[in-house]
Amino acid sequence: MYSRFLVSALFAGATAGLIAGILQLIFVQPVLLHAELYESGQLVHFGAEAVTAHPDLPGFDVMRDGLSLIFTMLTYTGYALIMIALMGIAEDRGAVIDGRTGLIWGVAGFVVFHLAPGVSLAPEVPGVAAADVTARQIWWFATVGAAAVALWLVAFGTTWMVWGVAAVLLAAPHLIGAPEPDVLVGPVPTEIGALFAARAFGVGLAAWVLLGSFAGYFWQREGVADTSTASA
């Protein structure tokens, strides 16, 4: 059982993390590097002259980008450990877990870790105004926890009361409100900030759907292998 759990999580997390890291390097990192030019003052928005929207950006950096890929693989392996543990509990309750149903688990993971907190605390590029980091972390973890419990209740609850509790948990963090900066002084153009948020959500959704599908596939495959070994 433990071998099934670990093997499934390692394969699913490392594979999904590698693809997610590559997608981030292609779609998200250029936006980050562009924003850093404004953060460092190399480009100035609303200056005396118009500023090009297509500046020269650094190419592939082996150290920085290689470490980014490794960190992303480790991060998604951590996510996979959580997801497969929950898949095992759901399977014991009669749920079918495979690569196809894993797609739904992936969408749920995206909602919990990206969309739910991102509705009020949007992904931020370097150089934008932001509230105290500790306050944002506390709000982020609370929102992720509330969203995780809410989606579990939606998926496995059987009464309107349970689903009502789920709706309250999803809405409460946003009714309370995320920490916000006192003043808006960021030097980065809004177009770059909007593009970064869109790219972050798009890559996040793709990565989580892949993670869910891989997790479901490996969990089913390892389960079949365990059954064959036990009956041999």
Mean pLDDT: 92
Number of domains: 2
Radius of gyration: 21 Å
List the uncertain runs.
none
What amount of the residues lies in strands? Answer: under 5%
Number of separate strands: 0
Q: What is the terminal separation in angstroms?
A: 17 Å
Task: Describe the sheet with the most strands.
Answer: none
Instruction: List the secondary-structure elements in sequence, H or E.
Output: HHHHHH
Shape: flat
> Which range best describes the helical content: under 10%, 10-25%, 25-40%, 40-55%, 55-70% or over 70%?
over 70%
Determine the number of helices (DSSP H or I, runs of at least 4 residues).
6
By secondary-structure content and strand pairing, the structural class works out as: mainly alpha
Keywords: Membrane, Transmembrane, Transmembrane helix
Transmembrane segments: 67-90, 102-122, 137-155, 160-176, 196-219
Protein name: Cobalt transporter subunit CbtA
InterPro entries: CbtA_put
